[in-house]
Amino acid sequence: MNTSTFKSDFLKRIADVKATRWVRFGVVAALFIAWVAWIGNPWWALLLILLFDIYITGYIPFTWWKNSKNKAVTAVMSWVDAIVYALILVYFVFSFVGQNYQIPSSSLEKTLLTGDYLWVNKLTYGPRVPMTPVHFPLVHNTLPILGCKSYLDSPSNSYRRLKGLRNVESGDIVVFNFPAGDTVCARFEESPEYYDLLVKHYGREFIKQNPDKFGEVIYRPVDRRQNFVKRAVGMPGQRIRIVRDTIYIDGKPQPMPANAQFNYIVATSAPISDERMHSLGIAGGDVQGLMAEGTDRMRLMSILPGAQQNDFFYVMPMTQAMIAELKADGTLHDAVKFGEVFATDGATLNLFPEGIAENWTLSDYGGTQGLLIPKKGMTVRLTPETWKIYHRVIRNYEGHTDAYIDNDGIVYIDGKPADAYTFAMDYYFMMGDNRDNSQDSRFWGFVPEDHIVGTPMRVLISFDRDRSIFNGGIRWNRIFKDANPDK
Prior knowledge:
Blueprint: H1 3-15, H2 19-39, H3 47-57, H4 71-96, E1 98-102, E2 116-121, E3 173-177, E4 183-185, H5 195-202, H6 204-209, H7 211-214, E5 217-219, E6 227-234, E7 239-243, E8 246-249, E9 252-253, E10 262-268, H8 274-280, E11 288-290, H9 295-303, E12 312-318, H10 320-328, E13 332-337, H11 338-341, H12 346-349, E14 371-372, E15 379-381, H13 384-397, E16 404-405, E17 411-413, E18 416-418, E19 420-422, E20 427-431, H14 441-444, E21 447-448, E22 452-462, H15 469-473
């Protein structure tokens, strides 16, 4: 086709386009140009040529099947066409606007409940440019049935976050990728026993040699790691300390959230029925009945002076409001915090950071000075003590994978001795409101800014796993409820 012929054909194609088609192209082009300006990469604007051809000129025969005389081909391809368009739309919405997310555990009760399905807003903090851009949009990291990865490791993008409305603030409920989920055993990926704990308990070689027990050992890119949801309680550059359950930030006590729960040993006048637990909002898996006979009963009654001879004993999470309610109706005779009676030290609980937290507990954490949370541009001296706190940040999150400390206590980064380190990212300290039943930063440390996904906005729907659909299984009162009511 010579230049003259191409020109006349081009003009004819444009002349034949209906006005409605031009309107559709105009809307799509405007949205696309705004998106290109937002991500700040003008090279993407070249795709306007493709959009122009799709909507206006039609040189690339994307819709060849519409001219087919085979009705089966037309029917099948019309469905394929609709599905492809839908998947592309879902990809962009989930990547740059927000997505649904399910609450799998009770760590944020009473604010968020197990079985809540949330709409997570990515615009508030600014969406991340997808680090693994080639992925199936409707699943996180594993294709159902097939059991294989739902993404390609290559190509990949470095971390970059687009402009958002604001930064993470203290008290925000935040969805983030699990920082310790970079390496996982396939059969334990959704288990509280994450890879580092399994290595501590079994050893790296034993895990590698027993794939039948542990599954394949997989490295997950940042945006393909398991999603967690917790409350941001410590901001970059702050010192966090917990004293008798009260959080101190830079030495100042923070108000106790009304929804904060702690495990109590309780004595009750009657058994706590499933119906009563449901009315109190306690997940069934969080309640443990205590068999109290003989010396065990005597011990429990010594711990709970208000207990009576025929009482029933439980370990269960409660807020102060729940304690007051049970006392008011005569059900609760006495209660004492589980941690005050059966204190477990940091080494036993595997608290962070290992080697420092032996004398810390869930209720008394951070030592006398508090734990310093890394901030972008902040510099710390590198000593054997600070290495225990920040080595994972330096090695795993900021890419200095060969960093180590020698037998003389000298830290080497990128092959050179270093007596100080300047952080490249902001970090956060996350905790659950269900304080004694939450695997959070007290166990695995800081959350890097590049792991932040977004903040929950609304509960879309909520299912009570302890009940059937036709017997209160749908929590109608939670539909479209504010997912972050304290903000």
